[in-house]
């Protein structure tokens, strides 16, 4: 899991400003969605970055959406209209991240950078996985050849790959579903 950007760790709270600013909210465990929902109901602008992960579950690849920064979300406040007091008592919120006694102001470019890196269609972040490299050992977990060890050769479209299967002392190329391949 990614950790919070270094820029957040090094950013001390800035003096109050008349323009809206981003702050970092600590949520209760696994309550990012609940906190976001209740903050939005109160009229706050929030940003809850999420990550799409592919996991092998019962022999099939499934996509699961998780928090990019577990237990954290961003909230944008206009100091002329809103205060942090109601945020602390919101359902799902554990507190406001502070450095010393002041709430931490998150630079706009940090949040804007996260938003720009999201997948435009789904609104989630995706890891840039180059996939297996040529020559990588793999295991087949599905199909008629399940349980055999193979060597990754190349991708053959979005859903299939060509692997090398050792049969009778020879490497034979075989096209298989990507869902059947896991790293050895």
Question: What topology emerges from the helices and strands here?
Answer:
Blueprint: H1 6-10, E1 21-27, H2 32-41, E2 45-47, E3 50-57, E4 60-67, E5 72-77, H3 85-88, E6 93-96, E7 98-99, E8 102-103, E9 105-106, H4 108-116, E10 125-126, E11 137-140, E12 149-155, E13 160-167, E14 170-177, E15 181-183
Parallel strand pairs: 3-10
Antiparallel strand pairs: 1-5, 1-6, 1-9, 2-5, 3-4, 7-8, 11-12, 11-15, 12-13, 13-14
| Poorly predicted runs of 5 or more residues | 5-15
Radius of gyration over all CA atoms, rounded: 23 Å
Major sheet description: 5 strands, antiparallel
Shape, principal axes of CA atoms: elongated
CATH topology name of the largest domain, in short, is Alpha-Beta Plaits
> Which range best describes the helical content: under 10%, 10-25%, 25-40%, 40-55%, 55-70% or over 70%?
10-25%
CATH superfamily of the largest domain: NusG, N-terminal domain
CATH top level of the largest domain? Alpha Beta
Total individual domains: 2
Succession of helices and strands: HEHEEEEHEEEEHEEEEEE
Structural class, from helix and strand content? Answer: alpha+beta
Question: What percentage of the residues does DSSP assign to strands (E)?
Answer: 35-45%
Average pLDDT, to the nearest integer? 84
The CATH architecture name of the largest domain reads: 2-Layer Sandwich
């Amino acid at each position: 899991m990614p950790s919070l950007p270094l820029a957040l760790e090094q950013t001390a709270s800035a003096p109050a400003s008349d323009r809206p600013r981003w702050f970092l909210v600590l949520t209760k465990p696994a309550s990012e969605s609940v906190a976001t929902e209740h903050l939005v109901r109160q009229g706050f602008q929030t940003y809850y970055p999420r990550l799409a992960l592919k996991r092998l579950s019962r022999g099939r690849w499934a996509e699961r959406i998780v928090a990019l920064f577990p237990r954290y979300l961003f909230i944008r406040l206009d100091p002329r209209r809103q205060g942090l007091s109601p945020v602390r008592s919101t359902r799902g919120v554990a507190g406001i991240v502070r450095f010393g006694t002041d709430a931490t102001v998150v630079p706009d470019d940090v949040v804007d950078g996260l938003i720009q890196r999201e997948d435009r269609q789904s609104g989630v972040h995706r890891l840039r996985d180059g996939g297996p490299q040529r020559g990588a050992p793999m295991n087949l977990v599905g199909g008629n050849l399940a349980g055999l060890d193979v060597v990754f050769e190349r991708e053959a479209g979005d859903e299939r790959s060509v692997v090398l299967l050792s049969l009778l002392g020879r490497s034979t190329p075989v096209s298989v579903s990507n869902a059947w391949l896991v790293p050895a």
